[in-house]
Amino acid sequence: MNTTTSYFLEVPGARLHYEITGKGPWLLLLQGGDGDADGTKGIAGSLKEHFTIISYDRRGLSQSSLTSPSEEPTLQVHTDDIHHLLLHLTTEPVYIFGTSIGALLGIDFLVRYPQQVRLLVAHEPPLTQFLDKTAAIKAAEQQEEIENAFQQGSIAEAMQKFAALAGINFKDKEPDAEFPKPTPQRTANLAFFLQNDAPAVRKYRLNPGELQQVADKVFLAAGATSGENLAHQCTISIAEFLRKEITIFPGGHNGFITHPKAFAMLLATFLLSKPQGIDTNANG
Known about the structure:
Elements: E1 5-11, E2 14-22, E3 26-30, H1 41-47, E4 52-56, E5 65-66, H2 75-89, E6 94-99, H3 101-112, E7 117-123, H4 133-151, H5 155-166, H6 184-203, H7 208-213, E8 218-223, H8 230-242, E9 246-249, H9 255-258, H10 260-272
Parallel strand pairs: 3-4, 3-6, 6-7, 7-8, 8-9
Antiparallel strand pairs: 1-2, 2-4, 2-5
Helix pairs in contact: 1-10, 2-3, 4-5, 4-6
């Protein structure tokens, strides 16, 4: 499948828009922040030579509309959506790459639906519960500052604080990297993310024992230039808890956007090197 095909799926409380492209085994891409199905097009362009790529708009973003608007989507609601989407597409476990909130969704999904996951690469998940007490309190305060800025009417100020907390740097990039352009839809997505998903990330907690039970399927990743950003520190704390190594990817927290070619090449090489092996004829 060299072209990208769009579909819709009815799930409890929402109508999900998703896209499929490529050939090979299934690889689900879970975007960060307000990213929709287009958010990972930069890396999908290279990955589709090796994988059948699934990307989708999280409920409330872009073309994924809420059919029960009064229901506040928790991370578990989002991972239920992933469960329904994958159940609709295949009976086989899939590869998953998630970044930022997408990485956190990948972790929650793996813990709750391990039979649907072949392997998860979690890039800088903002899971604060394994930080030491002082760092965790500071993280919560910084996250609440972002939410408060939005509640006071300033999306721009909220996103500036978010970019600073995440250590996002658009100046360090591949020469031909393309960045998302400002649009009314992007503004609506940012508002939904700040109103709903950002607080859900801050409140989220998982069962550490359940995470340990699926640790063999989790591979942690972080940006080469992320420095001291919150999500990078969270990744280190998760790695220490699981006694896992961290794979370093090009760029920072948004490296999949700023360095799409190098990022996709490393991700494909990493997945193809895993001992599970890949049937390149699957779904092709």
